[in-house]
Automatic annotation (TrEMBL):
Its main location: nucleus. Transmembrane segments: none annotated. It comes from Triticum urartu (Red wild einkorn). Pfam families: MULE. InterPro entries: FHY3/FAR1, MULE_transposase_dom, Znf_PMZ, Znf_SWIM. The gene is LOC125510486. Keywords: Metal-binding, Nucleus, Zinc, Zinc-finger. This is Protein FAR1-RELATED SEQUENCE. One of its GO terms (molecular function) is zinc ion binding. PROSITE patterns: ZF_SWIM.
Length: 579
């Protein structure tokens, strides 16, 4: 708790919350750094949450809220250390996290298949789309399918194709039924179970749902794996927090390197098209490479015009060689002013990048720039140019004000000159901030009498929205139960009990309840049914064995005994009754 207070003193925007039990021991610990708060404000539209184990001395699971920035790098928003993984615990974690990052709900959240987490998200994030991680589905398939998942079977390849490459629901359903029919798996319990919840993990159901090109909690898994490189297995809490700070610092260094690489180094153009040159100036270096991949795929499709300047059809050139259930034709619709190109594949809605089908139509239209509606700001170089709602008119992507006035322009230019001078050294910065606070305090009472000629009034910006948002955040903060925040006294908290057994701690990962190893069922190799083996199969088709032949006596000719046990007189070899 002293280290948390020290982190709060060094970083005023650092926020943490502690939930204690009846014995005043830590039950849940949640924190968000100032860097995580700023990152969430720009890239908090799609996040993942996953827990890892064996990271501390007390065997408390540790969860990470992870996202992706405009360089397609994993970024950490916040961390949570919990004693258990019950529904109430996850509700508290989600509620506190949203409060700490400003009350903004994400559009999409990806988690594992824990039922408690799913129920907590439904209550705390009702308007957020919740999806499962595909990695856990593939892991369970590996445990449940037995010999079908081996190298000698094509089932694994076909299953991966269904999971990763299907686009539409009809395509996925047809491919799934063909797979079940081909391998006679209609009664398989695992496949039946996951197909009933296909809307949670199958790729076609991610179409139209923005996930920032994430369809798995692999971002959280990689962050957890990276964390274990900094934190030893038997780590106490105070050392855990210190090492977590080092992890954050190293991640920020890598992000700064990508920022400089985007600003200083150029990119190589594959096709040298005008739209490609425009993309190289708008997107970051990493995202331009992904855009270039989509532009390169245009060569594998043939474009047909259905309705001039309205509807087009893109067909794959290898349509005849693909599976019968595979979708090879995609329809692209263009709006009236040719500012938006809607493709039925849903790639733009899912990832925020234009698909190859829509790009093919744009090249056909000879567009020199990507339409503004197809440029998502989170992938651009100006992704961090996000100002508060009442200052949003000054963002670079908004351009100059539509109704600028002489007095506003004069004050704006004078303020820029003062900012340039204040950035000369530390002393100039201190003087500038002190003077600005005095000017602001003097202008606040005078600004209450508005003449209606200000820029805010001319652009009809409603500042009441900001006040309502602040009131909502204050109400949420008052509703928080049993938390220790900021500089409040934490002397009543008792140290956590150690749960480590004797001996050297293992580095293996504990498994959650939903990851328990499933018992493999035995299937008959003849009829493919479960419950019996091939040796006892009723459809075996073997001919039943003939009944045992009874011996015949050579003396009396009666069945049932031999001649050495016969009671009649034994005949010699030359007597007539011998034969």
């Amino acid at each position: 708790m002293e280290i948390l207070s020290e982190m709060k003193a060094n970083d005023p925007d650092f926020n943490y919350t502690v939930q204690v039990d009846e014995e005043s021991r830590i039950k849940t610990l949640m924190w968000v750094t100032s860097r995580g708060f700023d990152q969430y404000r720009c890239f908090g539209d799609a996040i993942t949450f996953d827990t890892t184990y064996r990271t501390n001395l007390y065997d408390m699971p540790f969860g990470l809220f992870v996202g992706v920035n405009n360089h397609f790098q994993s970024i950490i928003f916040g961390g949570a250390m919990m004693r258990d993984e019950k529904e109430d615990t996850f509700k508290w974690i989600v509620r506190e996290f949203i409060r700490m990052v400003g009350g903004k709900h994400p559009q999409t959240i990806l988690t594992n298949q824990a039922r408690a987490m799913e129920l907590a998200i439904e209550v705390e994030l009702p308007n957020t789309v919740h999806r499962w991680c595909k990695w856990h589905v593939l892991k369970k398939a590996n445990e449940s399918m037995g010999v079908l998942w081996s190298k000698n079977s094509n089932f694994k390849m076909e299953f991966h194709k269904l999971v990763h490459h299907m686009i539409t629901e009809e395509e996925f359903g047809a491919g799934w039924q063909d797979m079940l029919e081909k391998y006679n798996l209609r009664k398989h319990p695992f496949l039946t179970q996951i197909y009933e919840v296909q809307h949670k993990w199958a790729k076609p159901y991610f179409r139209g749902v923005f996930c920032a090109k994430m369809n798995s909690t692999q971002r959280s898994e990689s962050a957890n794996h990276l964390l274990k490189g900094y934190v030893p297995s038997g780590c106490p809490m105070h050392l855990f927090l210190k090492q977590f700070e080092k992890l954050q610092f190293d991640r920020e260094s890598e992000e700064s390197f990508q920022e400089k690489s985007t600003l200083l180094s150029g990119v190589s153009l594959r096709l040298n098209l005008p739209i490609e040159r425009h993309a190289s100036k708008v997107y970051t270096r990493a995202m331009f490479e992904k855009f270039d991949e989509e532009l390169y795929k245009c060569g594998t499709h043939v474009l047909d015009e259905i309705v001039p300047r309205k509807i087009y059809k893109s067909t794959h050139i290898d349509a005849a060689a693909r599976e019968k259930w595979s979708k090879v034709e995609f329809k692209i619709e263009v709006n009236d002013d040719e500012s938006f190109f809607s493709c039925e594949c849903g790639t733009f809605e899912h990832s925020g990048l234009v698909c190859c089908h829509a790009l093919q139509v744009m090249v056909f239209f000879r567009l020199s720039k990507i339409p503004e509606k197809h440029i998502m700001k989170r992938w651009t170089r100006d992704a961090r140019d996000v100002l508060p709602a009442y200052l949003v008119r000054y963002q670079r992507d908004r351009g100059p004000p539509s109704s600028d006035t002489f007095r506003h322009h004069t004050m704006y230019m004078k303020a820029l000159e003062c900012v340039l001078l204040g950035d000369s050294n530390v002393k100039c910065y201190d003087v500038f901030m002190a003077m600005m606070k005095e000017v602001q305090a003097a202008l606040v009472p005078l600004s209450s009498d508005k003449d209606g000629m200000g820029l805010a009034e001319r652009e009809q910006q409603n500042q009441l929205l900001v006040q309502n948002e602040q009131e909502t955040l204050e109400l949420q903060g008052c509703a928080t139960r049993s938390h220790c925040d900021g500089e409040s006294s934490c002397s009543v908290i008792v140290g956590q009990q150690k749960k480590r057994p004797r001996g050297r701690p293992t580095t293996s990962r504990d498994k959650a309840l939903y990851e328990e190893h499933l018992k493999r069922l035995q299937f008959c190799t003849i009829c493919r049914s479960q419950g019996h083996k091939c040796t006892t199969c009723p459809e075996r088709g073997d001919v039943p064995k003939a009944p045992r032949k009874l011996p015949k006596c050579l003396n009396c000719g009666v069945l049932g005994h031999r001649s050495n046990a016969c009671g009649t007189k034994k005949s010699g070899p030359f007597e007539p009754n011998f034969l």
